[in-house]
Amino acid sequence: MTRISDEIRINAPKARVWEVVADIGAVQRYHPAVAKSWYTTEQRDGVGACRHCDLLPMGTVEERITEWNEGESYTIEIYESSKTPPFDKAVAFISLHEDGEETVVRMEITYTMKFGPLGALMDALMVRKQFSKVVPNLLAGLKHHVETGEEVDRDVFKRLRESAAV
């Protein structure tokens, strides 16, 4: 099993950050690798809520909430994908912790690959490197979106990365 995690401090109250991350059907507002997302269930929160994501540059994932702790954390699993690595199982855990007037958001992705030793080789050569960028990029996009209200697409994210490098 591969585990990738990171955290970020957001200058906003925990309730405001939760409002954004709990709207799972709108992840494209802050995730630079998601072109479009929407709910695929009438249920909008809690265990069983599902979403679809169109990924950049291509591919899709279907995800569902498997654990939900209102205002605190949730776990979401990829249960179907196209044009993405051949996961046997992939889940992401997001948690929020209030620290004064700021919120610390932690995200952890864990996954196992299909195809035994071949999958492990694919993970070592390509997948782990790719997913090691996903978590910090998502968190940076979330921070920007919550603090400014601006939606984060790839162009906005590129501008943010360039300004941070200066």
What does this structure look like?
The chain has 166 residues and is an alpha+beta fold. The protein has three helices and seven strands; from the N terminus they run βαββββββαα. The protein has one domain (2-159): START domain (Alpha-D-Glucose-1,6-Bisphosphate, Chain A, domain 4). Helix content is 32%, strand content 40%. Strands 1-7-6-5-4-3-2 form a seven-stranded antiparallel β-sheet.
Main features:
single chain; 166 residues; alpha+beta; Alpha-D-Glucose-1,6-Bisphosphate, Chain A, domain 4; seven-stranded antiparallel sheet; 3 helices; 7 strands; globular
Low-pLDDT runs? none
Q: Which structural category do the helix and sheet elements fall into? A: alpha+beta
CATH architecture: 2-Layer Sandwich
Tally of structural domains:
1
What's the helix and strand layout?
Elements: E1 2-10, H1 14-21, E2 34-39, E3 50-55, E4 60-69, E5 73-82, E6 87-99, E7 102-113, H2 116-148, H3 154-165
Antiparallel strand pairs: 1-7, 2-3, 3-4, 4-5, 5-6, 6-7
In short:
By secondary structure, the protein is of the alpha+beta class. 32% of the residues lie in helices and 40% in strands.
